[in-house]
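Batch manifest, entry 17 of 40.
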Amino acid sequence: MDIDALVDAFLLELRTGRRLSPNTLEAYGADLRRFAEFLHSNSISPERFRRVDFLKFLSSLERRRKPAKPEREGGAGKGGGGKLSSRSLARTVSSLRSFFRFAAREGFLPFSPISEVRSPRIGRPLPKYLTVTEVERLLDAPDRRTPEGMRDRAMLMLMYAAGLRASEVVFLRMENVDANAGFLRVLGKGGKERVVPVAETALDALREYVKDWRPRFVGKKATNALFLSRLGRQITRQTLWNRIAHWARESGISAKISPHTLRHSFAGHLLAGGADLRAVQAMLGHADISTTQIYTHVTPERLREVHRKHHPRG
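Output type: structure tokens
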């Protein structure tokens, strides 16, 4: 079977059978397109592909590798000639193992040539987070005199109050918000829904946006998307990234931050304040508590507080 047709069949299976997020599907597609290019350039058919060819493919990727650094949520590396991080390299190995398992299971290939290959282990970087003071400055930065400013203020406060992923913010609908009960219904990874409590201050900002400012974005369009662009459409991930970066600069935060920085800050600040790890896991929507445990690092603010309270000369 032609490699391109086999890749298309696998991606169709992922899209229809496993309910993966668009970003994860994009990542699989980028990995497999690189692999297909390698087979084409070396005149290797899927049936003739062996472990020695796999090592050659990894070597070609390794030559393009750069030092590891955290990627955007979802891990969707772009295809083409860009350099690969060690995290992307490990993800590519995992993608190909899944691809060949599928091909063997469905009878396209007699067996997986890399069934014994394990994904390389990589160090997990500590999440970047803001201090409480930096968060307060960021939340106060949006201009309350403009529709965009009030929309952004509501978005930022909601992200920090509920620990939302970028995609979860973008796809929020009006019916997902129960302001009276103080909860959000969030559609997370894999289409899994969770209920997240929201602080009253964030709900107040959201109520003000929905009542007084969202109608200015809607115009004559009919949409139930919560956060809208100037054209009255659901905001994009890129818009969300750009607005957060803009208000970070306005608030004097020099470090580059992303939507996930607010999610990291949400989790880190809860745990530093004594929140239960299992509760934070549920609010973040993590399937495995080991993912949540990365946030258990002690913040400098917490260290200073403990030292001040308990050291004899604090």
